[in-house]
Amino acid sequence: MQRLLIIGGSDAGVSAGLRARELDPTTEVTLVVADRFPNYSICGIPYFLSGEVSRAEDLAHREASEIEAQGVRLLLEHRATRLDPAARRVVVRDPRGTETRLAYDKLVMGTGAVSVAPRLPGLELPGVFLLHWMGDALALHEFIEARRPERALIVGGGYIGMEMSEALSKRGISVTVVEFLPNLMSTVDPDLGARVGEELRRHGVRVLTGTRVEGIAAEGAGLKLEGSDGLSESTDLILVVVGARPQTTLGAEAGIETGIRGAFRVNRRMETNLPDVYAAGDCVETWHRVTQDPAYLPLGTTAHKQGRIAGENAVGGAREFAGSLGTQSVRLFDRVVARTGLNDADARSAGLDPLSVDSEHWDHKAYYPGASRMFIRVTGSRDSGRLLGAQIIGHYGTEVSKRIDVFAAALYHGMSVEGVNDLDLSYTPPLSSPWDPVQAAAQSWLAACTAGARH
Amino acid sequence: MQRLLIIGGSDAGVSAGLRARELDPTTEVTLVVADRFPNYSICGIPYFLSGEVSRAEDLAHREASEIEAQGVRLLLEHRATRLDPAARRVVVRDPRGTETRLAYDKLVMGTGAVSVAPRLPGLELPGVFLLHWMGDALALHEFIEARRPERALIVGGGYIGMEMSEALSKRGISVTVVEFLPNLMSTVDPDLGARVGEELRRHGVRVLTGTRVEGIAAEGAGLKLEGSDGLSESTDLILVVVGARPQTTLGAEAGIETGIRGAFRVNRRMETNLPDVYAAGDCVETWHRVTQDPAYLPLGTTAHKQGRIAGENAVGGAREFAGSLGTQSVRLFDRVVARTGLNDADARSAGLDPLSVDSEHWDHKAYYPGASRMFIRVTGSRDSGRLLGAQIIGHYGTEVSKRIDVFAAALYHGMSVEGVNDLDLSYTPPLSSPWDPVQAAAQSWLAACTAGARH
Questions:
Q1: What is the dihedral sign for C-alpha B449, B450, B454, B455?
Q2: Model confidence over A206-222: pLDDT tens digits?
Q3: Is B348 on the interface with A (CB under 8 A)?
Q4: Which among B207, B205, B225 is positioned nearest to B215, based on CA atoms?
Q5: Does the beta carbon of A323 lie under 8 angstroms from any beta carbon of chain B?
Q6: For residue A14, which phi and psi values (nearest 5 degrees)?
Q7: Staple partner for B212: which of A46, A186, A402, B228, CB 3.0–4.6 Å?
Q8: B432:A327 CB<8 A
Q9: Choosing among B19, B405, B433, B439, which should be mutated to test the A contact, i.e. which has the most A CBs within 10 A?
Q10: For residues A42 and A130, is the Cβ–Cβ distance under 8 A?
Q11: What is the per-residue pLDDT across B382-393, written as a single tens digit (0 to 9) for each?
């Protein structure tokens, strides 16, 4: 009977534990969880804070009892403080400060990521929140309930900042987003970010891009934020969501190699350089299927997959992670913005010769009521014709998120843009066209590529 | 300058003509269209008859002038009456009976399909309609406007019959569907057909399955339909939609080989056995990508693809049709039912050893408002683990149609069921889960397959 120890009780850790038990019920699995919230959907935090999800407990992908019913032992509110790979031992500390040594035969590091805390005067003031784990969310929720803020300032225009701007707006709070870069949502191209900004403004969110935040100070019962171009804003609440970084100190100190942004370096079996030590999820470099290079792309979907693989391999499997494409969709008010693969800039950085072509298509036959236009940017290799990536922005309810997935499936298989036309996709007038928008966009790319080659 | 002649002005013919002109603007393209409606979306007929689309002209994928602007000459209301392949000549007849001989260098047959007319006494009575082409739709529309029927009987429970039952219900007509088979919608498994039946009944449609229609008679100003088990129904309108058959008489008489159900036999370049004669769309046998055998699967999506290939090859291309998967989605009231690939019975007929596993999943995270359950049946090969097909039924608005397309893309590439888990699909709580329902269903299949192997 072997002992599998897992540090981290979020997506990667829980997936690893459950998969190990599923494949080998004789394995003794212990999961060390830093907080009281194993397997919570941290992607759901904005919907709890918006009030759309009334109970924080509903955010659990699974209840603790369900995990335990699968034979996974949970050590809640235990922090791993030391890893001794030579002795195959981890020291954990409980809330009272008592330390325990846990021996392992196999170890999975699923320590996740933490919010980046910028060097900013005033970050420690009451009313200023970072947001990553459930504890942060509950603290913010309590603050909102107790203080009923009327104004909020969100520092950071990434997708979490955007989702939070919607969430706080839905609670009747007047929201301003401040982003340092010239556009919102750097995961998509600047002009798609600009369209996202329009959608937010249409719903009453104030958006300040190209604005540097310089400091936060207390002002009466509230706060004051100062920034570039003379920005001086009084507010009741400040949310700082400027990105996440892998939480790898414990492992790195024990000798686990790290790479991009300090994330654990793993091979496609999710093995670190240390024997019998795996790592998965937001704490690792992921392997990008298109560039075939490491990348840092922390996403819940990837964490689940990598955790499952680490768990399988920890009990004798030999499965390889198939790679990330950075596929993502975000819903903001009435729009969905989605991406997969490489954009033009990514592709150029990877030494490719990309061509990106924009087109707009009805989500379904225009004659059927309710049709709306969907913007699709296809990026392909100018010389090989290979599909490299796609970005879509369209109305909520127009299957944007599963349309990006059709591109993702094509990309997974290294299809050419032309090949996308060969896919036998479904059609009925209320839901698509005989050439799905995905294929119509591929045809626009082909026409532009051919026209370009002619010149 | 070569002359490309195309017989048939629906999806395949128009696609062929436009593609040929796009690739070689020197080609002289003539399109012979039997009616006045080139490139109409016949899939949209139910939505015209329901009143959701107010003008029949809106059903045109493209206006005649748009087609002509691409340099395609249209001969409307001309019927091809004789094909002489040795002389490379087609005789066409205009509405006044005048015959013209048209010479060609390359010919594309896009003659489509016609409604099957069962041997049924009374089929010729006023108030009884077959439904396939625009002319049928307009005649039915006029009848409804003039006579304001209160009751309608639909003979045939395939997807067109189902869509028409919804359409006529939406016009306030009381509808009864009579199907000979024990279940509706033979394109999906019987129990999915039964769920479709429940949806129709929930919306007031009366459904009689396992019922044979024996005859129609006039009864006062109305009609009477008699059937098995003493069925005797008075009604104002009868719609007979019991399937379609390829319209191939002209070509077959000229020596084009035919196969399944009399459809033209073509290779993957859409070439018939006659030199320089191509065929595409509902009049041909299609190549099934999973079974690698010919099949008869008339669908608009396939007609567009095959037409495009025939047009390309007619001007010197060498493109091959990638094959059909029979991917299809149908929306009925508040449900969407979709399928791709093989079901259990199809797979067994093809000599495979299938396992079909059912599972239900939330379309998005259950904690986010509006989640609903989606039923997914995955069919895979028990021995090889290869994905063979999938069927989904779920609520309208839950991305059922593009979820079947993720399966279709996986199927296209011959993925294993296990491989579906490796796809990097998008996730955000209002639209999916970290494992998309498609992947959760794949995992259910894997678990059942493993459990089965253990016994």
A1: negative
A2: 999 999 999 999 999 99
A3: no
A4: B225
A5: yes
A6: -65, -40
A7: B228
A8: no
A9: B405
A10: no
A11: 999 999 999 999
Cβ separation of B305 and A338 shorter than 8 Å?
no
Could you tell me how far CA A53 lies from the centroid of its own chain?
A: 20
Give the closest residue to A376 by CA, choosing from A387, A365, A368, A367: A387
Q: Kindly write down the DSSP assignment for every residue of A208-245, as one continuous string.
A: E-S--EEEEEEETTEEEEEESTT-EEEESEEEE---EE
How far B102 CA lies from chain A's nearest CA (Å)?
31
The CA distance from B72 to B27, in Å, is 9
Report pLDDT digits (tens) over A317-342.
999 999 999 999 999 999 999 999 99
Cβ-contact B332, B354 below 8 angstroms: no
- CA distances to A16, A271, A281, B422 from A314, in Å: 8, 9, 15, 18
| Strand blocks (E) in A286-363 | 286-287, 294-295, 328-332, 335-341, 354-362
Q: What average pLDDT score do residues A309-318 get? A: 98
> Is A424 within 8 Å of B325 when comparing Cβ atoms?
yes
Proportion of chain A above pLDDT 90, given as a percent: 97
What CA–CA distance (Å, rounded) separates B171 from B37?
24
Burial class (CB in 10 A: 0-12, 13-18, 19+), B412: buried
Chain centroid, CA A131 distance in Å: 13
Return the closest-CA partner of residue A279 out of A90, A109, A32.
Answer: A109
Which of 46-65 (B) contact A at CB < 8 A? 47, 52-53, 58-59, 61
| Burial classification of residue A171, based on how many CB atoms lie within 10 Å of its CB (0-12 exposed, 13-18 middle, 19 or more buried) | middle
User: Across the interface, do A44 and B365 touch by the CB < 8 Å criterion?
Assistant: yes
- Hunting for tokens 């046998």 — which residue is that? B285
Inter-chain CB proximity B300 and A58 less than 8 Å: no
Check CB contact under 8 Å for B412 and A406. Answer: no
DSSP result, B275-298: TTEEE-STTBPEEBTTT-SEE---
On chain A, the residues whose CB falls within 8 A of the CB of B365 are 41, 44
In whole angstroms, give the CA distance from residue A18 to residue A9: 11
The distance of Cα B212 from the centroid of its chain, to the nearest Å, equals 24
Where does B45-173 show beta strands of DSSP type E? 72-75, 79-84, 89-93, 99-103, 106-109, 113-115, 128-130, 151-155
DSSP, res A416: B
Q: Which residues from chain A sit within 8 angstroms of residue B327, using beta carbons? A: 424-426
Contact B73, B13 (CB under 8 A): no
Distance CA A287, CA A294 (A): 5
Length of chain B: 455
Q: How many angstroms separate the CA atoms of B3 and B27, rounded? A: 6
Question: To which H or E segment does residue A71 belong?
Answer: none
Gap between the Cα atoms of A245 and A436, Å rounded:
38
Residue that is written with structure tokens 């039924």 in the block: B393
**DSSP-based three-state secondary structure for A37:** coil
Name the residue of chain A whose CA is nearest to B305's CA. Answer: A422
In whole angstroms, give the CA distance from residue B76 to residue B32: 6
Q: For A162-187, what is the mean pLDDT?
A: 96
Q: Please state which of the ranges A90-94, A127-131, B441-445 shows the lowest mean pLDDT.
A: A127-131
Phi/psi at B382 (5° precision): -60, -40
- In the predicted model, what is the mean pLDDT of chain A? 96
User: Structure pTM?
Assistant: 0.97
Nearest-by-Cβ selection for B402 from A308, A330, A402: A402
CB A274 within 8 A of CB B396: no
Token readout for B230 is 């003493």
